[in-house]
Predict the structure.
Amino acid sequence: MTLSVATEDPRVDPGVSSSLEPISSNKISPEARRCFSQGLERLNRGEALEAAVWFERALEICPDFVDGHVGLGIAYAVDSQIYPALDHLQKATELEPRNFYAHLKLGQLYFKLRIPQKGYEVMARALGCAASLQERQLAANLLREERQRESSSVKRPLWNKPFSRIAICLVATFWGVLFGALLLHFR
């Protein structure tokens, strides 16, 4: 599974190598920023495990560093550590509910995991957080790609509705008949 790091991020100039930028906040220590920058360098070189170590250091110094959580979530996703990736991306959206990039990456991960309902919910929030036309276009492109993927794939059941009483009775009757037939057969 790959979760792209530098997908046309509107906050990044073409000449700049990093795809995440810390949200300028006075409470982020210089040491946490340095660790974050080291993590970005490693992530951009494709060294997800080493990047995760640097992002973890940044979060040890400043636990509420939103971009640190986003970076660590991306590093974990690239390294196929899905649950920690989800945890850190969700933490980033909780810490800063108006952070476009945190929502975008969380939605992208849900789409990669084939959890489209959650992906669409998060991407709707990302669109609400978009501050520029470029950010809206980036989110719209991801949504368009997901809709194309869904339209060309096999439809899967959602399993998000409870079973009706009739369905439960039919299944119970089926199992009762099957169990009874087995008992009669092995007597």
User: Anything to note?
Assistant: The helical segments are 30-44, 48-61, 66-78, 82-95, 100-112, 116-129, 133-151, 165-185. The CA atoms of residues 172 and 178 lie 10 Å apart. The chain is about 65% helix and 0% strand. The longest helix spans residues 165-185.
